[in-house]
Each structure stands twice: as C-alpha cells, then as structure tokens.
Amino acid sequence: MFYKDERLALFIDGSNLYAAAKALGFDIDYKLLRQEFERRGKLLRAFYYTALLENDEYSPIRPLVDWLHYNGFSMVTKPAKEYTDSQGRRKVKGNMDIELTVDAMELAPRVDHIVLFSGDGDFRPLVESLQRQGVRVSVVSTIRSQPPMIADELRRQADNFIELDALRDVIGRPPREPRYEREEETAGGK
Prior knowledge:
By secondary structure, the protein is an alpha/beta fold. It has a single domain (7-81, 93-171), classed as 5'-nuclease (Rossmann fold), CATH 3.40.50. It is built from eight helices and eight strands, in the order βααβαβββαβαβαβαα. It has helices spanning 14-24, 30-40, 62-70, 97-107, 124-132, 152-157, 168-171, 179-186, and strands at 7-13, 42-52, 74-79, 81-84, 90-93, 113-117, 136-141, 160-163. The strands form two sheets. The protein has a six-stranded parallel sheet, sandwiched between helices. A hairpin with a 5-residue loop joins β4 (81-84) and β5. The protein starts with 6 loop residues before the first strand and ends with a helix. InterPro entries: LabA, NYN. Residues 7-165 form the NYN domain. One of its GO terms (molecular function) is RNA nuclease activity. Pfam families: NYN.
C-alpha cells in the first residue's frame, strides 16, 4: 500500500520498536530500514524517539543514537527520569508519546503517508486525527510475539498494518555467531 510518488515520513518509537524486535528474536539494521522506505516512496523525514539516562557514565543506547544522528535520522531525545518504586526497585521512565504526536501533527500537511513504528494504543487518537487530515497511516509492530506487541485498537485504526516479522529479511541484522565459535575458527579449531 505504498505509492512511489507519495511523500513519506517515519516515526519510530525507539523503545517500543526495540522491544518488538527483541520479542521476535532479531535486531534491526537501521540503514536497511531507511533504504527500504526510501524505495517505497519519497522519504522526507525519519524520526527516532528515545529517552536517555543523562547521569550514567555509559548508556548502551548512546552509540545507536549517535549513529542514527549521523546517518540521516532526526533524533528526538529527552532525559529519562529515574525513581524508586514502592518496593524499593530502581525504575526508569521516559515516555516520548507527546513529542512524537506533536511532530506528526506539525508534519501532517506536508506528507501523504506516515509510517508509525509502535504498537502503543495511546497513538490511536493520533492516527485518527492524521487520517482526518488526509494522511494515510501505516503501523509497524507485531502480532506474532507472545503477547502481541500491538494494541488491537491501534491496528484496527491504521490504514495498513505491517507485521514487523515480515520485514525481518529486509531490515534485520544478520545474527552474530556466538563468540566462542569464532574464536575456535581463528585458532584453527574448526
């Protein structure tokens, strides 16, 4: 359901997409993801939303954020909030729904099709509003995980649902061999 001449924008809910891909057992190659949607239409913007822990010495997501920033993605980040729950466990909160929604509403008059990478049911009213403005909305998530990573109401509201698992061969990173097997090969063990 893509047309070559339509203006596209990608809106990636980073933590949601990461969780969906992890539930399916693969990693996403963001260079391939971008190329796939450049092939499907005129890609105007690719937004990636994530919260970052500012006070940690090293954030495991920092290299990805830097790579995406230098490779044509519009990065939208904010500091994650840390708190201790009632059981004394350290929790991190970093919801980016409002930022994504505002950006999508602002860009809506300039695009024909928005691809939302999230299964969060909170985005259903956004999808409905974008559709009222004449924008087609595809949602990328998965129903093949246990439990499914997409809210049923979001899937039903979207013009098009794209199963993330169906994109595995197109945007998935090849699985890495376990480290010990590579070490045996280099040592002449295999």
